[in-house]
TrEMBL record:
Domain DUF7054 stretches: 1-85
Source organism of this protein record: Citrus sinensis (Sweet orange)
Lineage of producing organism: Eukaryota, Viridiplantae, Streptophyta, Embryophyta, Tracheophyta
Transmembrane intervals: none
Listed name of the protein: DUF7054 domain-containing protein
Length: 114
């Protein structure tokens, strides 16, 4: 029975993978959290703008458009190499979509001139 897995997580815009040793019954969200923790601890560059795991998605590769489900068990993924990137703002926080609905300041100014 496997007790630990050695996984490689390539983080967007970073050189080289982060090596994470983690239990196989952990989830994708646990792996994201561990990879961020190691990345920050090693003081890798570029620095992450956000360290909250909810702001990141895990993919099989940088060419895979579909992100892995956060509650998926690592043992069921069938891979040891992953790619982590930041999520689009609308999937993390609804305030981004609210900002998109509000008109641009220039439009407000144009209405003022009319």
């Amino acid at each position: 029975k496997l007790t630990k897995l050695l996984l490689n997580v390539n983080i967007e815009r970073s050189l080289g993978p982060v090596k994470v040793v983690i239990k196989p019954d952990n989830t994708v969200s646990d792996l994201i959290e561990a990879a961020i923790e190691i990345y920050v601890k090693e003081k890798r560059r570029p620095f992450l703008k956000e360290t909250d795991p909810r702001f990141f998605a895990l993919h099989y590769s940088q060419f895979s458009l579909k992100s892995l489900k956060a509650d998926e068990k690592l043992i069921n993924l069938g891979s040891r190499n992953f790619f982590m990137c930041s999520k689009p703002c609308t999937s993390v926080n609804s305030s981004c979509s609210e900002k998109a609905i509000t008109p641009f300041p220039l439009i407000k100014f144009m209405e003022f001139l009319l």
